[in-house]
Amino acid sequence: MKYKKTNHRLGTNVVHVGQEPDPSTGAVVPPIYMTSTYKQEGVNKHKGFDYGRTRNPNRDNLEQCIACLEDAKYGLAYSSGMAALDNVIQSLLCKDSYMLVCDDVYGGTFRLLDKSFKKWGLVFDFIDMGNLELVDEKLWLNQYKNNITLMESPTNPLLKIIDINEISRIAAKYGSIVVVDNTFATPYFQKPLNLGADVVVHSTTKYINGHSTVIGGAVALNRKDLYNEFEDYRELKFNQNALGAIPSPFDCWLMRENIKTFPLRMEKHQKNAFKIAEFLSSHPKIKKVIYPGLNSHPQHELAKKQMYGFGGMVSFDIGSFRAADKFLKKIKLFTLAESLGGVESLIEHPAKMTHASIPKEIREKNGITDGLIRASVGIEDAEDLIEDLERALNS
Ligand SMILES: Cc1ncc(COP(=O)(O)O)c(C=O)c1O
User: Fold this and answer.
1) Which tens digit of pLDDT belongs to each residue from 32-63?
2) Are 333 and 345 in contact, with CB atoms under 8 Å apart?
3) Which domains are delineated in the chain?
4) Which of 199, 265, 274, 289 has its CA 20 to 30 A from that of 116?
5) According to the 3-state scheme, what is the secondary structure of 178-229?
6) Catalytic (active-site) positions
7) Res 316 pLDDT > 80
């Protein structure tokens, strides 16, 4: 859906974009249009809505808000983060295309490429994108193929920061389309399109929805040639309908409601994450703490430059699987579960949970050790969370 910029700021926009009272009843919160189809006045004579896969008012509403969050012209909503990524790849690439991907990505993203797309002839390299010379070399070698450069920043689960501006500059030399998965940073702390990226992808399941109630995905972009309203089979808007992985009206409505508190939640997530990263850094049983806001983070300066804050994710190494397993059995206020970005604190073991689909040798080479734990810090009182961590570590 196309989004027309307002003159307001983010905190106002999340409450008001697309939220005018319902003209027929005055309801302050827009109703849920739980319909699969729409009455036509004559053949192809309708009010812009003909079939629910193609368009729904609740989806329009959510898509405008997603575009607004990312400072984008266009927003698209999908039934999951993986569906959003699948749509981007299917739209922009074809057989024998090339993808350059950062080496630390969500396990499901690795699996989508390695299992689903490899068999169609997609060629890809997973590399450390901190090495800009290597990025340049790989893109130079593949410049005559259809081409995407895909990154997460901060990465999942090692929270590496990638220089989106520099990578976009290199990619532009070789015509590679830059796609950034902004799920971890969120548009509250980072706006990749303003740093030179072409397309932003989200698992809205996470911070954007923020309440662990909905699985969803989104795409935001400014480039009309990639969005397009002219039904070209290569383009995102066309493929959202053609591939059909759209979210339900109820999911769109619920997510749009939850976005109203997005800035407030993000402030608290970050405040708590800082306190927890500092606590863990001082605990003798913890070997390493990874949080972009700490001075000890190798790309702390880059994080300060390209982000407005450091987010709510903290990873740490407790030394071994045995120690991790014992700790995770003891922790109570943090729920041991996959996913992240909800108001409640979640904790997980990447090697055996979210990143288990990555082969062990690749995982270990990248630094996803058996002692690594990933925490999604919620919005509870930080003191209670710290007491919970301390008790589980010391028992
Ligand atoms: C960074 C990142 N991108 C994409 C996804 C996939 O999103 P979904 O689970 O909504 O399909 C995830 C899921 O954990 C993720 O962490």
Assistant:
1) 999 999 999 999 999 999 999 999 999 999 99
2) yes
3) 10-259 (3.40.640.10), 262-394 (3.90.1150.10)
4) 199
5) EEEECCCCHHHHCCHHHHCCCEEEEECCCCCCCCCCCCCEEEEECCHHHHCC
6) 53, 106, 181, 206
7) yes
Write out the two tokens for 319. Answer: 């030394």
Q: Which of 333-345 are b and which e, b meaning 16 or more Cβ less than 10 Å from the residue's Cβ? A: bbbeeebbbbbeb
Find, among 362, 315, 303, the residue nearest to 126 by Cα: 362
Evaluated on CA atoms 300, 14, 82, 179, the torsion sign reads: negative
- Looking at residue 29, its pLDDT comes to 96
Q: Which residues pair with 178 in a beta bridge?
A: 149
* Tokens at 348, concatenated: 């997980």
* Burial class (CB within 10 angstroms; exposed 0-12, middle 13-18, buried 19+) of 301: exposed
Q: How many CA atoms lie within 13 A of 162 on its CB side?
A: 34
Sign of the alpha-carbon dihedral angle for 247, 112, 218, 243: negative
What is the distance in A from the centroid of ligand 1 to the CA of 271?
Answer: 23
* Cα 183 to middle of ligand 1, angstroms: 7
- Can you tell me the distance from the alpha carbon of 307 to that of 298, in angstroms, rounded to the nearest whole number? 15
Q: Would you say the C-alpha torsion 59, 313, 178, 215 has a positive or negative sign? A: negative
For ligand 1, atom 8, name the residue with the nearest CA: 81
Which residue's CA lies nearest to atom 10 of ligand 1? 81
